[in-house]
Amino acid sequence: MEDNQCPNAVACKLIHTKGFVDESKKAFYTAHYCYADGNGYKACKRYQTALTLHFCPDFVLPDSIITTDEILAKYEEEND
Ligand code: SF4
Question: Is the CB of 41 under 6 A from ligand 1?
Fold first, then answer.
């Protein structure tokens, strides 16, 4: 694994699923989170969510301002 690379980068949909976010947004996120100096990935909400819940719904983005409880509630609402 390269220095500063998010451990989830090998499988993260934000990186590997075409159209998951705009290309310009993807470039911003990868530069500021996924491969950012100082292990910037640790500030990513998708990373934090996967760490806590062991999965991360698609609606969560690196800079989403939403609590884990809110993420779970929204996920359950969507998958009811
Ligand atoms: S979006 Fe977040 S979880 Fe996905 S690879 Fe980038 S830093 Fe990791």
Answer: yes
Pocket flag, ligand 1, residue 6 (CB < 6 Å): yes
Q: In sequence order, what are the residues at sequence separation of 6 or more whose Cβ sits closer than 8 angstroms to the Cβ of residue 71? A: 49, 53, 57, 60
Question: Digits of tens for pLDDT over the chain (80 positions)?
Answer: 458 999 999 999 999 999 999 999 999 999 999 999 999 999 999 999 999 999 999 999 999 999 999 999 999 999 98
| Residue 3 Cα to ligand 1 middle (Å) | 14
Q: What is the DSSP letter of 33?
A: I
